[in-house]
Amino acid sequence: MKSRRPISMRVILYWFSRVVLGVIFIYAAILKLGAPQEFADSLASYGLLPTALINLVAWGLPLFEFACGFLVLSGYRGRAGALSMIALLALFCAATLAAIMRGVPVNCGCFGRQSLLDASPWMVISRDIGLLGCAIYIYGIYMKKEMELAGSVAAQKSIRISTE
Amino acid sequence: MIGKLLLQDALWVWALLTVCLLGGLVLNEARPQPLPLAYSPPAARLNSTVGRLAAEDGTPLTRKGDVDLAQMRKISAGHTALILDARPEIFYRIGHIPAALSLPRDDFEHRYPLIEPVLRAHRGQTIIVYCSGRNCDDSQLVGDALAHLGYADVRLFRGGWSDWEEGGLPEEKE
């Protein structure tokens, strides 16, 4: 009888990160798409974007988040999805930190109307850093897989050449 | 090898972002109430709404004094004024000062016509507006809007919901 291999912590962490990130990004995107004006107001509260770009970003960013969530969750172009998440989360952290440093009261805007419940910007940063860690971990795993694949292909080629 | 993969992924990210920004534009146009291309801040939006709603006899008023927690407590218990909650409706549903009506700043255009008959009935009486606390400006904006719409005695409870809640005073939920 074939014995089952125990599931390693690495595999659990990998799937946990993918599911958590995918679900959170899709959930946040849906909430933002349902309240675009509120999201535009949140973006404006950071005082970082020029006025002309605020509404454009308020429309496009939730779709981008949705796409990232879908890619990471489904695994299709997962590497690009994970890298997009890394870029977005780093940007969110930097924007929130900049607002804290300038003493600007911001409304996170992370979860549409519900983001009004995010009282503390430090809580927002902590959450984003946690998610950023997950995204970097997933991207690292993807890259490692690619490197291993490239390594095995190179090894097969060299075997083929030596046997010829 | 890593550099090549990173570049490839970055190009994908860029392409995805471009598609999403363009998709957002299309999606916005498909909405029943699309956002304008240029962003307009809440105060400007409210002013433009008030400008449309304002009756010809709407006269700006001199704002009377604000009310503090003790006064607010008496007013709420005695029903001696009309109380308006200017916070987003979700917060009104979670909890509000007893007998307060919801007139959210962010949905003024749609909510005002709904409660206008009640407000008109209190036109000569005191109307008190509050929002979440001292750091919010929703009560100020709604108060100004009502003043421009011709309501004679609009006052603010600046301590707002946070003072009310901290005072352990009764609340209503919807």
Quickly describe the structure.
By secondary structure, chain A is mainly alpha-helical.
As residue ranges, the low-confidence spans of chain B are 55-62
In this structure, how is the largest beta sheet of chain A organized?
Answer: none
Order of helices and strands of chain A: HHHHH
Radius of gyration of chain A: 20 Å
Work out the helix count of chain A.
Answer: 5
List the main descriptive attributes of the protein structure presented here.
heterodimer, A: 164 residues, B: 174 residues, alpha/beta, four-stranded parallel β-sheet, 4 strands, elongated
What does this structure look like?
- The complex is a heterodimer of chains A (164) and B (174).
- Chain A has 164 residues and is mostly helical.
- Chain A has five helices and no strands.
- In chain A, helix 1 crosses helix 5, helix 2 crosses helix 3 (51-74) and helix 4 packs antiparallel against helix 5.
- In chain B, helix 2 runs parallel beside helix 6.
- By secondary structure, chain B is α/β, with parallel strands linked by helices.
- The radius of gyration of chain B is 22 Å and the shape is elongated.
- The model of chain B is unreliable at 55-62 (pLDDT under 50).
- Classes of the chains: A mainly alpha (164), B alpha/beta (174).
- Chain A binds chain B through residues 33, 36-38, 40-41, 44, 51-52, 54-64, 67-68, 77, 79-80, 83-84, 87, 105, 113-114, 116, 143, 146-147, 150, and chain B through 1-2, 5-6, 9-10, 12-13, 16-17, 19-25, 27-28, 31, 35-39, 41-42, 88, 90-91, 106, 135.
